[in-house]
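Backbone-to-sequence.
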């Protein structure tokens, strides 16, 4: 008889299934209020996911840009010092075969000498006759460059071609114009073999270049082969050596290049190689992420307060129900558990919807910017759990308030 009574008592107990069923019924009883309750949590979780997702996506994009430009660019030039007259003097000198020496170093994919030229008062024009009545225009700069400068500077040919090693060795009177310089000089097509004049010397235009982000002044310049500049314009020493290097080879190139260019006095040359990702850039990115995470935390706090208020309001509205349950034998723990579970369910719903919204925003923004969206899936899972944790914390006080209701007072209409 005792065993039968124990089985019946155990069967009548308020189990976990009953707790979840009652909590689900309480959550779904007022859909409109539920939507308003979880809105703050949704926005808070979504802001956190969007912040982390866009920060990760932007970091990958920044690294790609860094690798594509800065991480593959190096520069060598003579070291300088200030003389007694206050003017800078070069301490070393680049050899004329500096590009060939540099290209023997592992990691150097292209190298070329680039120098500015002083043409004095020589006029640069596309016509052989000087017209005194014509309006004066700004004279384009004149540069000398090696045959591999296009590869070293990562430019692109718009028309024609770049001069080769034969042009450089023979000192041919050929030039390549930057796109801006070609427009200013009125050179529209190179297949008609146009020429420009530097002073009284004619130089055939064989190409037009653009996209020289590593040496932007070359877009508006007239570029001659280095051999031609030495023969015609008296270039006495190279000015800079530009290199296109493989990603990650900056440290090796920085160590070996000065020795390769001047074994007897490597300190007389300065070499600029890519540095690791900028610390300032990382700090700025961290500061921006911190700001948005703080805003997300405020939204989460507002969401938690909203859940707490609505849950407490639900307790006050259901005082009679709570009193009846207590009178029928429900314990304080069971009453508190029901309201805690309701709050946790509301928080989980907010976290799930917020995480989904945040992922959608990251994908849409990345697609609009033609980026590749990057988001750690662990962040999404933790965001959903964070919503549940907010609901748990927000529901503790209302649950304790519900558990403290006395059956007799509740049935009389009091709290």
């Amino acid at each position: 008889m005792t065993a039968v009574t124990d089985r019946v008592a155990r069967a009548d107990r308020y189990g976990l299934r009953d707790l979840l069923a009652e909590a689900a019924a309480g959550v779904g009883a007022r859909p409109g209020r539920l939507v308003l309750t979880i809105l703050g949590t949704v926005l808070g979780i979504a802001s956190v996911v969007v912040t982390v997702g866009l920060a990760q996506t932007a970091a990958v994009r920044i690294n790609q840009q860094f690798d594509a430009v800065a991480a593959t660019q190096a520069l060598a030039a003579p070291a300088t010092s200030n003389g007694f007259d206050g003017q800078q003097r070069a301490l070393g000198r680049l050899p004329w075969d500096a590009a060939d020496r540099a290209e023997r170093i592992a990691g150097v994919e292209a190298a070329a000498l680039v120098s500015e030229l002083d043409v004095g008062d020589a006029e640069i024009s596309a016509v052989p006759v000087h017209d005194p009545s014509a309006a004066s225009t700004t004279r384009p700069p004149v540069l000398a460059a090696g045959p591999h400068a296009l590869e070293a500077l990562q430019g692109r040919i718009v028309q024609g071609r770049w001069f080769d090693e034969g042009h450089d060795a023979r000192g041919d009177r050929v030039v390549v114009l930057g796109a801006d310089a070609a427009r200013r000089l009125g050179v529209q097509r190179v297949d008609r073999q146009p020429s420009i004049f530097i002073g009284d010397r004619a130089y055939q235009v064989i190409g037009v270049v653009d996209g020289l982000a590593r040496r932007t002044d070359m877009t508006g310049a007239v570029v001659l082969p280095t051999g031609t500049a030495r023969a015609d314009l008296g270039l006495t020493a190279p000015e800079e050596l530009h290199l296109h290097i493989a990603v990650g080879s900056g440290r090796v190139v920085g160590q070996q290049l000065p020795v390769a260019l001047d074994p007897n006095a490597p300190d007389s040359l300065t070499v600029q190689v890519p540095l690791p990702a900028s610390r300032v850039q990382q700090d700025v990115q961290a500061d921006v992420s911190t700001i948005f995470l703080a805003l997300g935390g405020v939204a989460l706090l507002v969401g938690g307060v909203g859940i707490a208020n609505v849950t407490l309001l639900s307790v006050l509205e259901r005082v009679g129900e709570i009193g009846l349950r207590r009178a029928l034998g429900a314990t304080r723990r069971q009453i508190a558990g029901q309201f805690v579970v309701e709050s946790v369910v509301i928080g989980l719903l907010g976290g799930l919807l917020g995480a989904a919204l945040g992922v959608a925003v990251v994908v849409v923004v990345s697609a609009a910017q033609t980026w590749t969206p990057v988001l750690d899936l662990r962040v999404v899972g933790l965001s959903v759990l964070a919503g549940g944790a907010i609901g748990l914390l927000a529901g503790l006080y209302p649950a304790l308030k519900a558990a403290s209701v006395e059956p007799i007072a509740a049935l009389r209409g009091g709290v």
